[in-house]
Amino acid sequence: MLVVGFPAGPLEANCYLLAPEGGGACVIVDPGEDVAGPLEAALSQHGLTPVAMLATHGHPDHVASADEIGARHGIPLYLHEADRPLLGRDAGERKDGIVPLAEGPLGLAGLEITVSGTPGHTAGSVVFGLTSAEGGRIVLTGDSLFAGSIGRSAGDGDELVRSLGAKVMTMPDETVVLPGHGPATTIGQERAGNPFLAGTGA
């Protein structure tokens, strides 16, 4: 599985490209602020054609470029319905180009993606889990889980901790965590050292 990630925008939110391999279809995760330029460069470098955008949640630093990229490539944005109002009045009422995300398996670009709801940072926050053909596991956590921290800003910290305990920290230790900001980590590292997860049974 090919995973390409880069930070963009004033808040350096991580945008990711996921594909079974180079030279084919891919999905874009969290097309945030100022993403278009580096995204097009990465698509060209790896010979990728996007078929959809996925949002871990609806904050602008994770979806601000969705309209531009969607129009350029003719692809929809998958977003949990609870976060649609965060897109603003016009986008929140728009039906075209936005596909509601639901928990469970989602097949896109030859990938099997597991969508799990993790409300707390926002009402519609989700994480995306994948297993590579070689057996490696990754989870894209948006602003729900970071290396050494969690995303409580403007959200419900208690609800988020419960969500993480039930949906994320049950994953194997070797699962690679690709967060919405900052460096990658693993479930094992967070289980051992994330102070916000103490008492979750992780």
From TrEMBL:
What cofactor(s) does the depicted protein rely on? Zn(2+)
Q: Does the keyword Calcium apply?
A: no
**Hydrolase among the record's keywords?**
yes
| InterPro entries for the chain | MBL_Glyoxalase_II, Metallo-B-lactamas, RibonucZ/Hydroxyglut_hydro
Domain named Metallo-beta-lactamase: residues: 12-181
Pfam family of the protein (one): Lactamase_B
Provide the alphabetized UniProt keywords.
Hydrolase, Metal-binding, Zinc
Gene3D superfamilies documented for this protein: Ribonuclease Z/Hydroxyacylglutathione hydrolase-like
Protein's name in the database = Glyoxylase-like metal-dependent hydrolase (Beta-lactamase superfamily II)
In its UniProt entry, the species of origin is given as Amycolatopsis roodepoortensis
